[in-house]
Automatic annotation (TrEMBL):
InterPro entries: Beta-thymosin, Beta-thymosin_sf. Its main location: cytoplasm. It is found in: Cytoplasm, Cytoskeleton. GO terms for cellular component: cytoskeleton; cytosol. This is TMSB4X protein. GO terms for biological process: actin filament organization. Belongs to the thymosin beta family. Residues 1-30, 87-117 are annotated as: Disordered. The gene is TMSB4X. The keyword tRNA-binding does not apply. GO terms for molecular function: actin monomer binding. It holds the Pfam family Thymosin.
Amino acid sequence: MGDKPDVSEVTKFDSGKLKHVETQEKNPLPTEQTINLEKAAERSSKIIEGLDPSKLKHAETNVKDTKPDAEAMHQDRAALTAAAVSGFDKSKLKHAETTEKTHLPTKEEIEAEKAGK
């Protein structure tokens, strides 16, 4: 129980084998701007706490929802399309062969189908 730990390995350790490491502060102090924001929030909450709701006046909210008309939307779309098309580089396209996948029935196939129903 009263044994002393062996410290010889610690004292013999070559500290030259250690890599250099830059210390990074993980808990920086707040900036002056952060402190001022917190103070302003604290003052605002104290003001709100002191308000008497019975002294407040009723206010109507007037919501104005303006949407662009169809002509403005068409002009915007046309301008975007023109910009995209004018800057397109055809030389970057790869050649592709078109394969017809649609089969149109012959007159005989149509007649056979009609007869089957």
